[in-house]
Amino acid sequence: MTHGRTPDATGDDAESQAIPNPSTEVREDTTDTSMPPSNVGDQTMAEQSGVTFAGELIKKGFGFLVVAMITRLVSPGVYGLFVLSTSVLHLTQVFASAGLHRAIDYFVPQYLDRGEPGRARGVTVQVFGLLLLTSAVTGVGVFFAADALAAAFDEPGVATGLRMLAVALPLLAVFNGLMASYSGIKRLRYRVYVRDITRPTVRLLATVGLLLVGFGLVGIVGGYIIGLVVGILLGIVLLIRRDVLKGGETVFTSVREILWYGVPLALAGVIFVVMGQVDYFVVGYFMSSDDVGIYRIGYMLAANLLVFFSSLAPVFKPLIAERRQDHDAVAERYQTATRWVLALSLPMAAVLVLGADAYLSLVFTPQYTAASGVVLTLVVGYLVSVTAGGPGGTLLQGLGYSRMVFLNSALLLLANVAFSVLLVPRYGILGAGVGTMLALTLSGTAALLEVYHYRRIHPFTRELGLVVAAWLPALAVGGLLVTLVSHTLVVALVLPVAVVGTYAFAGRSLGVVTPADVKIAEHIVPQSVVDRVRRVAET
Q1: pTM
Q2: E strands, 228-368, where?
Q3: How confident is the model at residue 54, as a pLDDT?
Q4: Cα distances (angstroms) measured from residue 272 to each of 2, 181, 278, 412, 534
């Protein structure tokens, strides 16, 4: 564990204390003392991330199934039009939400930790009201600006998609508010029900049905909206039935407090979404919509690496927020989360990079193997980003440094635009991937330095080093397999087994599993699994 002094109220610490801080008021200690406080936090993090991990797998499976069906029923050009339309949607959606939904999973866990459900309910109601107002206004603007936005890409078909998707802006704002609410009350199974099961299932069925009857781009967009509507209806029912937000007098939080925290994150969100979509814009500007569609597939495959962090992030931020003044608790949770995420992500990184050609060819079509280099570059960037506290500055958000998140996001955007504009004309979609990798590395390094500067916290421990050491022979074995075997299907099937098997053997030999991991496992997995984990730890 990293130790050090609590920083003085300077820099971003002064910023975080310039407004009333709901987490620092004196309160009765209601912590469960049946386990040490650090283990309680680790147990919660493990339990909830296990729930969301299952959901992430389901969502990823449905996501790939939807795209696989789309790419077989329409041309890459039509799919590229959908990608461009949704890129504009996601950018304007950040303006529409103004980052307000992020205030829910920051304030709510602190209020509930103090036993004030009325304040938690009040801030939730406030945020949803503000979300509906800002997103409706933005949606109207997008509808009337659709032709002008389509002209910027010289793709008239984008206008049709944008007019339909303008309706989805308020829906997306409400949907994101629901997801933040589930994180704030630590009921992430609701997130799984709504986001990972209901919405993608309905979207898949609706999209395929509409495409089969010949609706093309309209069918893809229509399936997207139908899935969103059904997911929201279920999500609202689940939220209003929760007892945790009931009781006590409803007390509203100062709008100034909400905006003070949320607006910098909104600006950061704008930048982060632009960064995520800028590659599509640059590729679309210098190249064709076919190249946009191919790049998007490579981006999707590489993004599977984030499945483990995405499972942890919804509970990681609230756990950091509720203990953000406790230096040792924050340090341990950060180091533990980083070790767990990298331990699970590194073997997947090896499989994705080494097997990119095989999976792109089998899951989609052979023409998409052109995106294999994109997968490699993005995987490297994602690994750096996860180590630095997560995409979007999740650690810094939980600590209250919303303005620092904004600055890091600005750095990320500027670097990505500069690198992409320089590299795409010369290297095509590979240049876009390299540009994103370099930008993620630069921004992630900045975040690591900032957290260490303000809190004297870093993720690098001996245990993390053992995880990396166990991964290296697995990477070597996987590379040898791909070199020697030429049959695509054999590579796709055998590569994960070879990499994971080697990684597990090396991890057991090096003692990657710690006694603390065994204690947490006792609370979240069956006894038979605990016994296996214990044997590994004692080897």
Answers
A1: 0.60
A2: none
A3: 65
A4: 30, 22, 10, 8, 41
